Known about the structure:
Elements: E1 8-14, H1 22-33, E2 37-43, H2 49-58, E3 63-66, E4 80-81, H3 83-88, E5 93-97, E6 100-104, H4 107-117, E7 126-130, H5 134-145, E8 150-155, H6 158-172, E9 177-181, E10 193-197, H7 215-218, E11 221-226, H8 235-242, E12 246-248, H9 251-266, H10 272-289
Parallel strand pairs: 1-2, 1-3, 4-6, 7-8, 7-10, 8-9, 10-11, 11-12
Antiparallel strand pairs: 3-5, 5-6
Helix pairs in contact: 1-9, 1-10, 4-9, 5-6, 9-10
Amino acid sequence: MEINGKTRTCGLIGCPVEHTLSPVIHNTLAAQMGHDLVYVPFPVQPGRLREAVQGADALQLSGLNVTVPYKSEVIGCLQEVDALAQTIGAVNTLVRTAGGYKGYNTDMEGLYRAMMNEGIRLAGERVIVLGAGGAARAVAHLCALKGVERVYLLNRTLERAQTVAEEVNRTAAGEVVFPLLLQDYDVIPEGTYLAIQGTSVGLSPREQEVVIADRAFYEKVHTGFDLIYNPWETTFMRLVRESGGRAYNGLKMLLYQGIIAYELWNDVHVPEETAQVVYGKLKEHFVKKQ
């Protein structure tokens, strides 16, 4: 690819960003789709987020991804915010408009596409969500939006779980999310569940850690989805599989949230065969880093 004065630029803002796999996604997509576009990470130091967004607009960057710790803070820097992102309270994608950037959240639709790709359906499902932080909160909103039967939200502190449950239930106009302390998992009714691991526990280099170690818990899990993708198999995933369930990591969520952002920036649809080419590149890159 020849980079010249017509080449459009997109990128990632956050702190830190050195570890990101997003350039693999977007630069591969640009090559596959024949778009004159490059994607680069931009580290933004604390206290300089507004300057960064304004500078990106001044430089006419077509779009940005936003990662930790700015997904909520960036909302105050934007011209407009999509309704889903406003509900979730987090933005991870900025699209440049005539008046400034509009914010979207592609994380949750990315998770949904990843689940659909693996044959996981949310409508009518009974779900256990581990954690009540930003990611788990967004997962609870997604579950309510996609018509799950109920969600058991397990967290170290009950107050945080209750706050998230009340917020999601208000949006859903019904009692869908039920808060519990992590150690009270045994009160969840008998049956089998989709379990989504939404905490940072088990993230490399702390691969041996897990929020719930009791194997009796995993006997209730028919499918486990860990939002973590490094390591490739978390302890949570291993315990799900050892109890006879299916388990998936978060790499396809990373893939599809990036694809949705790319579609927004370029007003295109990325075919599934192209998505799988990008996924292959991600896996190659991921293996090299192990």
